[in-house]
Specification:
The protein has one domain: UDP-N-acetylmuramoyl-L-alanine:D-glutamate ligase (3-Layer(aba) Sandwich), CATH 3.40.1190. The radius of gyration is 17 Å and the shape is globular. The relative contact order is 0.18. Helix content is 34%, strand content 20%.
């Protein structure tokens, strides 16, 4: 499969991922770099936390000291022409605040926020008290946020949707978070034959549908999708087109996940399913 890209001959589409490191390689910074690379962008990174993690779960989290998060941000922004930023795991309120401060200082063209709170294994990745900081400091700066259903519930205070009607009932509260757009991902509705997402703008809603693949190897799907969206935005696509392309990419990566044999738990998606030569 050829992955469509829209690149400028004048510049390299540079995408910054700000997230935690997954030692197992399936999610976090590692998944972000793979997804950005596979979809035609150049990835740079700022690591916010180091996790001891594999396909079976997270055993430890070490937040990076604030001054080192700040110095990483200054280093990449002061040299690289970063067009789009993807934000993932931020761990605590202090890290959220410094990231928001640097986003305001350097003003990248696009900001994609994946409000990472819970890993595929169920492990908590964001301190509960930090959610209010995320909502007040960072989400209003975003061009698009990409919560899954449990994350949408945590952000709005509503119950986790059990069907598409429940997802629709969450729209008003998600709009109130202040981001320009919200992609509410329906992947957790596992009884449905399709995996349907709601792309919510201030004045309209798009429903994105994809055939559901039955596999346990879905580690890093949220990280990879948000990174792909950031990559496509950096290449000149508008939000709707970037999300459509990102949805196509992650659906194929999941469909090919069982071709990999990594770990004994929730394995990773297959980021490079298309082969390197076809991605140029």
């Amino acid at each position: 499969m050829n992955l469509p890209t829209q690149q400028s001959n004048a510049s390299t589409p540079i995408v910054l991922t700000i997230a935690g490191s997954d030692s197992g390689g399936g999610a976090g910074i590692q998944a972000d770099i793979k997804a950005i690379s596979a979809t035609g962008g150049f990835a740079c990174s700022v690591i916010t936390a180091i996790t001891s993690q594999n396909t079976k779960g997270v055993s430890a989290i070490f937040p990076i000291p604030i001054e080192h998060v700040a110095s990483q941000l200054d280093a990449v922004f002061s040299d690289l022409n970063i067009v789009a930023v993807k934000v993932g795991m931020l761990a605590d309120s202090n890290i959220i605040r410094i990231v928001a401060e640097k986003i305001k200082q350097y003003r990248p063209q696009f900001l994609v926020v994946d409000p990472v709170m819970v890993a595929t294994s169920g492990d908590l990745l964001l301190e509960t008290e930090a959610i209010s900081t995320l909502k007040s400091e960072l989400l209003p700066l975003a061009d698009i946020i990409t919560p899954n259903l449990p994350e949408g519930a945590a952000l709005t205070g509503l119950s986790v949707p059990q069907n598409e009607s429940d997802m629709n009932a969450m729209i008003t509260d998600l709009r109130a978070l202040g981001a320009k757009a919200v992609l509410l991902k329906g992947g957790h509705l596992e009884h449905d034959d399709s995996s349907n997402d709601l792309l919510i703008f201030s004045d309209e809603i798009e429903v994105l549908r994809a055939k559901r693949t039955q596999t346990k190897n879905t580690h890093g799907t949220g990280c990879s999708l948000s990174s792909a969206i950031a990559s496509y935005l950096a290449q000149g696509n508008d939000v709707l087109k970037a999300v459509q392309l990102g949805k196509t990419y992650i659906s194929e990566a999941i469909a090919h996940a069982d071709e990999l044999h990594v770990g004994e738990g929730h394995g990773p998606v297959n980021h490079f399913f298309a082969g390197h030569t076809q991605l140029r």
